[in-house]
TrEMBL record:
Record bears the keyword Acetylation: no
Top-level division of the source organism's lineage: Bacteria
GO MF terms, alphabetically ordered: oxidoreductase activity
Alphabetized UniProt keyword annotations: Oxidoreductase
The keyword Transmembrane helix belongs to this UniProt entry's keyword annotation: no
Family (UniProt): Belongs to the nitroreductase family.
CDD domains for this protein: MhqN-like (cd02137)
Lineage: Bacteria, Bacillati, Bacillota, Bacilli, Bacillales
Residues annotated as domain Nitroreductase: 13-189
Name of the protein in its database record: Nitroreductase
Matching Gene3D superfamilies: NADH Oxidase
Length: 212
């Protein structure tokens, strides 16, 4: 049972803002980073196939290498780390591992396991590239949001970044051919608060039963 009350959770949600100025003296230990990433992996994914991969960049020289690739955005240099959220475009190759673990844990009967593996091999593997990309993007987006909220709960600030050159990133950080960069998330402690932002009123974005 979670010890978080509804109010605590909503405070975390409300306190998350995109911070772009970080205290460069703050370091996040590998242990704490692993803890946050582990918690984040409870995110849902299509058929639980978990296409996300992470490259945590906390070495200053590598952050400097990333800086021009990420449009010289200052948070790349000053945040404690930049987490590159990557998508494995051959994520269905882990189907057998995942469903075998589920079956061995007693969460999935053998028959269901076999069906799930067959679906991964017969359906996911043969989707066209844009459909594959869409699944990987959606699942990676869900874990990214979850990671940013977990970071906030632990007192850290984040900013998601799409403003970088994906091809140059792939080359500079030697990504395997089947890995695509989805987004970068700078994480650390704010030196300056985030800019305030507005949201469209609900009646412009939510509809009941028909779009009007
Ligand atoms: C996919 C994505 C890409 C973004 N890329 C950048 C970026 O490259 N640089 C940046 O400073 N902010 C970036 N942002 C942050 C948005 O500007 C920010 O989320 C938005 O203005 C709302 O502000 P808030 O996050 O403080 O609520 C990005 C956000 C998302 C979701």
């Amino acid at each position: 049972m979670s010890t978080l009350t509804k109010k605590d959770f909503l405070s975390v949600v409300r306190e998350r803002h995109s911070v772009r100025q970080y205290d460069p003296s703050v370091k996040i230990s590998r242990e704490e980073m692993q803890e946050m990433l582990t918690e984040a992996t409870s995110a849902p994914s299509s058929s639980n196939l978990q296409p996300w991969r992470f490259l945590v960049i906390d070495d200053q020289a590598l952050k400097e290498k990333l800086y021009p690739i990420a449009n010289n955005q200052a948070q790349v240099l000053d945040a404690s780390a930049v987490i590159a959220v990557l998508g494995d475009m051959e994520w269905y190759d882990k189907a057998e591992d995942i469903y075998t673990q589920s079956q061995e844990a007693g969460y999935m009967p053998e028959e269901v396991k076999q069906k799930m593996i067959a679906t991964a091999n017969q359906v996911y593997r043969h989707l066209d590239d844009s459909k594959k990309r869409s699944i990987v993007d959606i699942d990676s987006g869900l874990i990214s949001m979850q990671l940013m909220l977990i970071a906030r709960e632990k007192g850290y600030d984040t900013v998601p970044m799409g403003g970088f050159n994906h091809e140059k990133f792939k080359e500079a950080f030697n990504l395997p051919a089947n890995y695509e960069s989805i987004m970068l998330i700078a994480i650390g402690k704010a030196a300056q608060p985030a800019r305030q932002t507005v949201r469209l009123p609900l009646n412009q974005v939510a509809f009941w039963n028909e779009i009007n």
